[in-house]
Amino acid sequence: MQQVLWVGAVGLSVALCAWFVLELDGRRLLGSMRASAARVDALRAARRGKAAGATVTPGQVSEMVDVIRLGLSAGLSFDAALGMYCEHSRDALASRMARARLGWQMGMETREEGLMAVARDVEVRQLESFAVSVGQAHALGAPLADTLARQGHEMRAAHRAAVEREIERAPVKMLIPTGVLILPALLLSIVGPLIASSGAA
Predict the structure, then answer these.
(1) Is there a contact between 101 and 84 (Cβ–Cβ < 8 Å)?
(2) Which helix H or strand E contains 16, and what residues bound it?
(3) Residue 21, CB half-sphere, CA atoms under 13 Å: how many?
(4) N vs C: which end of the chain shows fewer Cβ within 10 Å?
(5) What is the pLDDT of residues 67-98, one digit of tens each?
């Protein structure tokens, strides 16, 4: 946020200096101010896009797959089940999927292209296999609920394995704080009184 404000302040100060020093007319000043405002907006949009892409986790993807599978099992179409997920979820994946759904409903792209674009944007590998499965099921007329059930199970297993790997790494990461912070304090608390008592004797 500070960088965005800094760019805006620099752009405004450059525009004002150019107006006073070079005696530019009001239209040019307004144009340079609009250009600096456009740069600020571009920086904000890029920052929002990065933040949205960074918050999507494999757990959210498996949750989305399960919701869509349940919707399909209840008799909804794929688009209706995806719409139900997008309406009731407030995360970055739901908003990105809602935009992709609107894109293929308006005919701007195919369903598989839209889902692959979401997978590239959020950088979650499991979404690519989801997009391919959905595209093949719609092209061949195959039942999608069973495929999504298998994919949801695989996604949950992969997510569980990733969490277990992180848990296994935790003791190794704790060695450095233990060695640097806790052991010296423990040694001082044990050796300190001994040195003090031997010095007093």
Answers:
(1) no
(2) helix 2-22
(3) 6
(4) C
(5) 999 998 999 888 899 999 989 888 888 888 89
Q: How far apart are CA 93 and CA 119, in angstroms?
A: 10
Mean pLDDT taken over the chain: 77
49, 122 Cβ separation under 8 angstroms: no
Residue where the block lists tokens 């950088």: 123
Q: How far apart are CA 169 and CA 164, in angstroms?
A: 9
> Is the separation of the CB atoms in 78 and 144 below 8 Å?
yes
Output the six-digit token pair for 125: 């590998």
Q: Which pairs count as long-range contacts for 122-127, CB under 8 Å and 24+ apart, including other chains?
A: 122/52, 122/53, 122/56, 122/92, 122/93, 122/96, 123/53, 123/56, 124/56, 124/57, 124/58, 124/61, 126/58, 126/61, 126/62, 126/151, 126/155, 126/158, 127/61
Comparing 86 with 201, the larger pLDDT belongs to 86
Q: Which structure tokens are listed for 9?
A: 């302040």
CA distance 93 to 175: 36
